[in-house]
Amino acid sequence: MKRMAHILLRDEDVISWSISFLEDYRLAQGKISSTSQSLGEVSVKWCKPDVGFYKINTDAAINGKSQKFGCCGRNSSQLVAASSVQCISACLSPQAAEASAILMGFHVVVEANLLPVVLESDAKWVVESINDIRPSYTDIGIIFTDIVDVMSEFSISCFLHF
Questions:
Q1: Is 90 helix (H, G, I), strand (E, B) or coil?
Q2: Rounded CA gap, 130 and 133, in Å?
Q3: Above 90 in pLDDT, residue 100?
Q4: DSSP H/E element including 104
C-alpha cells in the first residue's frame, strides 16, 4: 500500500490509475485513437520519403540538467545519409529542447546538403508553433525564429508532426 496525502491506496489502484493517466495523455497527444487500445499496441511506423527526397527525424531527451538532441536523415532507400547527437548542460523546457533538436536537424540538413527534405518531429505543439510563427522574444521564440530563417534561406517548406 502507498500513502498519498493521508490516503492509503492499494498498489493495484496506483498502477491502474497510472495506466489510465498515460492512455489519456497519449490520446490527447494523438498517439492512440481510443483508450480501449492497450499500451502494448501503440506504435508509430516510420515512412520513407519520396524518391529524390530526404527525411530527417529529430528528438530531444531531458534528464535533470542534461539535454540531449538527436537527428537522423535517411533517403528514399531508407539508408542513413547523416545523423547527429548533441548533449548540453542546461535547463530548457521540453518544448525548447524539442525546438533546439529541430534547429540542429536543419543545420545537419544544410551541412550534408540533404535537400529537398521533409523534417518530422513528435513534438506537436512545437511543430504547430513553428508553422504558425509569430514574432516572439522568449527563449523558445528566438529558436523558432532561427528555424524559420533556415527554412526560408534554403527553401525548406515541408515540416511535419508524426
A1: coil
A2: 5
A3: yes
A4: helix 94-112
Q: Cell numbers at residue 107, please?
A: 543545420
Q: Domain residue spans in the chain?
A: 2-41, 54-161
Q: What is the largest CA-CA distance in the chain?
A: 61
**Amino acid identity for residue 84 in this structure:** S
CA atoms of 32 and 16, how far apart (whole Å): 18
Q: What is the pLDDT of residue 35?
A: 42
State pTM to two decimals: 0.69
Residue 152, all three cell numbers:
526560408
Contacting residues for 81 by C-beta, under 8 A, at least 6 apart: 54, 73, 74, 75, 112, 114
User: What is the spatial distance between Cα 66 and Cα 87, in angstroms, rounded to a whole number?
Assistant: 7
Please tell me the number of Cα atoms within 13 Å of 2 on its side-chain side.
10
Q: Which three-class secondary structure state does DSSP give residue 151?
A: helix
Instruction: Decide which of 3.40.190.10, 3.30.420.10, 3.40.50.970, 3.40.640.10 is the CATH code for 54-161.
Output: 3.30.420.10
CA dihedral 96, 97, 99, 105 (to 10 degrees): 160
